Fold these 3 entries.
Entry 1:
Amino acid sequence: MLPPSARPQMRRALIESARFLPDVVLKAIYKAGKAARLGVAMRGAEAALRRKRYGPELPLPATKPPQQFWYHREQPIRELYPERIHPSLFGVEYFARLAASKVTWNRHLEMDGAGANMRLFEACGAGACQLVDLRDEVAHAYAPDTEIAVYRSVEECIEKARWLLEHPAQRQAIAAAGQARTLRDHSVAKRTEAVHAHFVELLRAAPASAAA
């Protein structure tokens, strides 16, 4: 019946008191708790034994506050537009929805090196016309505004989305080009070949002693 905030203090007080009991008594409490399936008795006896042998537990080091991204400060989009946000899809249903979309929107995290997420390759591979924020990694994987549509600001994103919806022939051409690039250069087989070639290059450049 203790409030949650008082439970840690009570636990520490019981452990501090129990550490004065002989080891044989604490072990008996542990065995009795195990037999009766009382986890609290087992954990308490074990903690008291550790306290006797190793002293009080040291406080955890202070950690840095987690990095705050833009979406941590915004109201979730599912609450802003509940009639337009649908439950998550996975597997075949997910890829089918990508393929059926007129435009698939993509945005990367606000940090360096976060470009070229999985959605970039999944949407293009499914044959969707993808509208994605321009990053160096994105431009390296696909030709901007040829195999994917790119934007650099919110205003440009809105403008590009409207243009793509109003020009189905150009939208379909971008989707087809992006899918062809995915099948040609970004399949599992192609990526495996690239990784293998990279490791071979590293091994050849390494000193003989290190390679051995």
Note: Residues 10-54 form one domain.
Entry 2:
Amino acid sequence: MLSHETVPLNQYFSLPKVELHRHLEGSLRLTTMLDIARQHGVTVPASMFNLSGLVQVQDKDPMTFTNFLEKFKTLRLFYKSPDVIHRVTREAVEDAAKDNIRYLELRFTPVALSRAEGFPLHDVMDWVLTSAQETARKNNIKVGLIASVNRHESPELAEQVIWLATEHIKDGLVGIDLAGNEAEFKSAPFREIFKEAKQSGLHVTIHAGEWGPAENVRDAILNFDAERVGHGVRVMEDESIAALAKERGVTFEVCVTSNYQSGVVKSLPEHPLPRMIAAGLNVTVNTDDPSVSRITLSHEYQHVCEDMKVSFEILKQSVLNAAQASFMKDDEKPKLIAALKKEMKM
């Protein structure tokens, strides 16, 4: 249980926010999943309570990465039509806006979205981009999209996704991401593809140092020229790699509840985020998969301050860190940062 002694939840909610690490596939509303199941004949439990056990981490669940990833096996059943993909994208952006997020980078995995019904990858990209940008305009939030590829997929498929991503830079697709099971699959087959993508104008973020060792963070920095690292919390296991990340100005997209639920840390108070901050690393706070984890970014902010004893002022600085490290166009960043500073009285 949280102590609530530091700052009431409504003060975390009222803080303007920036989020850099949120997966579309982990953001589906339970009510929407039940609607889709009824409309498309997806066989799932008829009640929200029973469905929740399949697609959301429960308090009684084992806190392991296998249990965490298991939730996505059921989630992949729901991408049944273009209307569904439009809807889940729209709702993900609406939910972020409701949590007072001013700028969101929403990553999505075109292969996962296309596979349930064999949709062409370029259509899936168009559907997500169109819905995200339309909803952003209606909800006073700015959204950048990141196309994600998985380590267990073929490099040829990743190349196809990244080629399409390059074609969509003009439509708000700002970066690419290498995700998936880093404990069992190597990153090496994707290095050249990601280097070419960066030369084409796409920004690069790499999932590393979550379920794999600190060495994977070094790999992301040196072999992928990653500007940001997804999670990266195991960087603190190696001082030389932490020093390299600090020297290069790499930003860490930390997701505290996800790290606990997937077994990376044993408890929230033991999370290395405060040590990362003390070591001078550039740290941001994110949700990862808000629906799977049953959280909002406001809840994450509360955990950081109250379970990890990070000061509210440092939390506010992490919001500015996220804005500065965003893949937003350089000429648009100063306006966002100035607005955040004014509202947070910094």
Note: The chain has one domain: 9-29+83-344.
Entry 3:
Amino acid sequence: MLLARSQAAETWTADEIQAALDCDPDWMTTEGADRLIRQVHELAADEDADVRDEAPRILARLRPRSR
């Protein structure tokens, strides 16, 4: 998903991909949000430069949920 978002040629396409990322009901729970943050942290070390570059942008928008 990060690769697709990083390579989206149209702004609306990137917005739709971001909305899918933002609205996954799994990530609305504390456990799900924590899991997403861990996964994106791992993607920050991905072999693909576009994925590595997109991960910090996604992380900047995410915050751990309070318990």
Note: DSSP finds four helices and no strands in the chain.
